[in-house]
Design goal:
Rossmann fold; single chain; eight-stranded mixed beta sheet
Length: about 550
């Protein structure tokens, strides 16, 4: 790929067919059943355009690095359920997650427990996963595992999925610089560089057959004007050096059935040289990815109105969050009166003459806002009255508004630090702030299936998870399209490389741990020497 890759090189989800896609019922999004429904609908649509290939009886191991709230657990679960219903014996086993923030670690552990525990309370295969702490350590033989509270073997996976922090790259971040090639660095403020370097080191050490990467659309911003490199082209180039055939997709969540505008780059990588489960002799990896591009378009859906996914006014979660905010008391904030006056005047408004909109001050939620937030709210409602959702978490000049087409509202991209004021058109419903679990719903997280996790997590943490996670229906569309397009090997011809390498890794790790007190010792048994020769490492060049 040329160094100056741009959005034009990516398959765009916006290049859809002229046929209006089917819609998703709001009730199915709320109860979490929509992913299973979508998986069945996708499979039916695929069978009309391609000859389905039956996967062999095999197990695909998968892991994630900095994927957010691990909604991929639900994506893989629904794919597994679909294939069981179709009579396939294809299993997906979760081997590891990697997350450095304690709050997100607690969330991942809890979600895994609710989703991965069988009806009799016994541990399923998915419960045998590790939860590693530092992405930078994923290229090592062992790394700190916060789930087992020890250093665990870093296992092999067939499918690796990852994202990086948006803090370094998002245009909404204070750390954002369009001319900074963060993805070419060894370290960065938001940790994006460290995360990607760790994933790259993992892929150079282990045999990864499939790779999925996600990040913001600002990856393709100007970058280095001298070399015409962007963060996107840097990522693409480094993945190519890892031996992957690649395909980029510029996807928007709103086109896959959720009422949220969220544009993200996704990159799928296939490694032909590591294809233990696939036979690329008759269909190359590039041809497979071309098929994926066509199948993904069949997965598009029309979203419901965002108002249909909001909690009811009598929901206890609304009262609990309001009481929590009221108990905090009045918060101080930096407030520049001169800047506020200039902002109002620039919009043709008189700062002293603009009052809060009718109903705004009638709700206790207004009392929980800082003086700056109240000013931003007043200004934004005077400037643009029709928005149902508005983000007042920053300055008056950076308010984000929802959009409406034919009375169907679409929220803006959900972000970790947002503060969203919601005003429904019904006069009897007083305005209020959006809560974190509603942000998760706009991302398609099936929160109804994890009531225990939701009950023990604060709305603030849920907001952060929603702002950093991958979109559930988009990942489902991409992965299901990929699995449908792949040339699976028959069961009798499948190669078994993972078990051999894993056994060798574990044996070496045990030896290395035992001999760490005397690393210079030459007393190495013939068996260990043989294990070192057997250790499989792809060419790192």
């Amino acid at each position: 790929m040329a160094s100056g890759s741009s959005a034009s090189n990516a398959s765009s989800s916006q290049a859809c067919s002229n046929v209006c896609p089917a819609s998703i019922e709001p009730s199915q999004i709320l109860d979490g059943s929509y992913l299973g429904t979508l998986a069945k609908e996708h499979a039916a649509a695929f069978s009309s355009v391609i000859v389905p290939v039956t996967p062999p009886e095999t197990t695909l191991l998968w892991g994630t690095i900095c994927s957010g709230g691990e909604v991929l657990l639900f994506t893989m679960k629904e794919l597994h359920n679909l294939y069981v219903a179709m009579g396939f014996k294809l299993r997906f086993v979760h081997r590891f997650s990697c997350e450095i923030k304690p709050a997100l670690q607690a969330w991942i552990f809890s979600v895994n427990h609710e989703v991965g525990t069988s009806a009799d309370g016994a541990e399923t295969d998915d419960m045998k996963y590790c939860l590693f702490e530092r992405a930078e350590d994923m290229g090592k033989s062992v790394a700190k595992c916060v789930r087992h509270n020890k250093f665990c073997i870093v296992p092999n996976v067939d499918l690796l999925m990852m994202g990086t922090s948006c803090k370094d790259i998002s245009r909404a971040s204070s750390a954002y610089r369009a001319d900074m090639l963060v993805m070419s660095m060894q370290s960065s403020i938001g940790g994006s560089a460290e995360t990607f370097c760790g994933a790259e080191a993992y892929m150079l050490r282990h045999i990864v057959q499939i790779f999925l990467f996600e990040n913001v659309d600002a990856l393709d911003d100007a970058g280095d004007l001298t070399t015409h490199m962007t963060n996107l082209s840097v990522v693409y180039g480094r993945l190519e050096k890892c031996g992957f055939a690649l395909k980029m997709f510029l996807m928007d969540t709103v086109l896959f059935g959720l009422p949220q505008s969220r544009r993200r780059y996704y990159i799928i990588g296939l490694k032909e040289s590591a294809a233990a489960h696939f036979d690329f002799s008759s269909k190359s990896a590039s041809q497979v990815l071309g098929t994926v591009e066509n199948l993904v378009r069949l997965c598009q859906r029309t979203p419901p109105c965002a108002s249909m996914l909001l909690l009811g006014e009598d929901d206890c979660a609304i009262d609990d969050e309001l009481n929590r905010r009221l108990a905090m008391g009045e918060k101080g904030s930096k407030y520049n009166v001169s800047a506020a006056i200039s902002q109002f005047q620039g919009a043709g408004l008189s700062w002293g003459a603009v009052d809060a909109r009718s109903g705004t001050q009638d709700t206790l939620w207004y009392d929980t806002l800082t003086k700056l937030q109240r000013n931003v709210l007043t200004y934004s409602e005077a400037e643009y009255k029709d928005a149902m959702f508005r983000d007042i978490g920053q300055s008056s000049s950076r308010v984000r508004y929802s959009q409406a087409i034919q009375d169907k509202h679409t929220v803006f991209c959900q972000m970790p630090g947002q503060l969203v004021w919601v005003r429904r058109p019904e006069p009897e419903k007083l305005p209020r702030l959006q809560v974190g679990r509603e942000a998760l719903t706009f991302q398609g997280y099936p929160i109804a299936q994890i009531p225990t996790t939701i009950s023990m997590t604060s709305e603030k943490v849920m907001q952060e998870i929603a702002g950093n996670m991958m979109s559930a229906p988009v990942t489902l569309a991409l992965l299901q399209s990929l699995f449908a397009a792949l040339p699976w090997r028959p069961s009798s011809h499948s190669k078994s490389t993972q078990t051999t390498e894993r056994d060798v890794d574990e044996a070496l790790a045990v030896f290395n741990a035992a001999s760490s007190s005397n690393p210079a010792s030459d007393d190495v048994s013939p068996r260990v020497k043989r294990l070192r020769r057997l250790r499989i490492r792809p060419n790192a060049e």
